[in-house]
Amino acid sequence: MALRSDWSGKACPMARGIHVLGDPWVLLVLRELFAGATRFDELRDRTGAADNVLTKRLADMVEAGLIVREPYREGPRPRYDYRLTEAGADALPVLHAYGLWAEKHDPPAEASGRLRVICRSCGQQSTQGESCSSCGAALTTDNAAWVRPGSTSATPRPLSGPVRS
């Protein structure tokens, strides 16, 4: 999934992480998978990606082990659900870090455009991505919820987690 170079074999863990997660479309697809979208049309509509771009990123994400593809309709044009793996779910703190960084350093013009990361253990908004800034609980797909920018509801929505075997 390299942007310009293949960094998959580099000794530097940041380079290897960028190799897998450094594409903006990958991050946006992950965002929507955490928010509960699983089908191609949902992912396309929610991210704004062109069909060919999304098809390529989904294939790359399957190959990288971030997601699995599960058929929900067989036939001449099969259809698939895309679900997070444990590796994909482990990227949640990366997305939180991006979102929280942007809220601090590039805030939206309107307050309703703010992302809120909510810890489901204590119910408080966290200002950190990996663990709750109030109670210290890990912010995982089992324990975090989002109030997304522009949401018409102030109720935090639990996140979708990985496929469990």
Automatic annotation (TrEMBL):
Coiled coil: none annotated. GO terms for molecular function: DNA binding; DNA-binding transcription factor activity. InterPro entries: HTH_ArsR_DNA-bd_dom (IPR001845), HTH_HxlR (IPR002577), WH-like_DNA-bd_sf (IPR036388), WH_DNA-bd_sf (IPR036390). Residues 12-110 form the HTH hxlR-type domain. Keywords: DNA-binding, Transcription, Transcription regulation. It holds the Pfam family HxlR. The keyword Cell membrane does not apply. PANTHER family: TRANSCRIPTIONAL REGULATOR, MARR FAMILY, TRANSCRIPTIONAL REGULATORY PROTEIN. This is Helix-turn-helix transcriptional regulator. It comes from Aeromicrobium phoceense.
